[in-house]
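Let us practice reading a record.
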Amino acid sequence: MKKKRGNYRNINKLGLVFCLFLLSTTMALLGQGSRKWIGTWELNLEESIFRNSEDNGPPWKSRTWSIAAIAGGIAITDDLVPAKGAAIHQEYTVPSDGTEVPLEHLPDFTISFSLVDDNTFELMTKTESSSSTERFVVSSDGNSLTHTFVGVPTNTDVYDKQP
C-alpha cells in the first residue's frame, strides 16, 4: 500500500514561500541597519572648512544632525546655533524612492533623497527657480560625516559620530 502524500507538497511550498519572505524582510532590515550614516552627528569646527561666511569664520557655533531610518525613507533632525541669531530646529522625513516632498516650514521648497552607496546619500532641494544638491559621505571607519553642496565651492562641514 502506497502512502498518500496529500497536502505535504502544498505545505512545503508554503514553507518555502514563508522562508523566502522572512529572508527578504531580514535582508531589507539588515540593509537599512548597515547604512553608516544612520545616527547622531556633532559638528567638528576644527575639521570643517568655511569658505562662504562672514569674516571667514564659522557660520554657526554648533550643529547636530540626527538621521534615522524609517519605513520607506529617512527622518532628519537638524539643530544648529548660528554665529549670530537664534537657534534653529528643523525636522523632516524624506521617502527613499526619490519622491519630492514639500518642506513643512518652507512651502515653496521640495526635498528628495537619493542613495549613492552604503556610505553616501544626497538630498536635493528645489524651488520654482532654483535647485541644490547636498551630499553626505561617511568615512570608511564610520566615525565622521562630511556634508557639502555638489558642484559648488562652499562650506565643507565635518561631523563626528556620537555614541
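A brief commentary: The longest helix spans residues 8-33.
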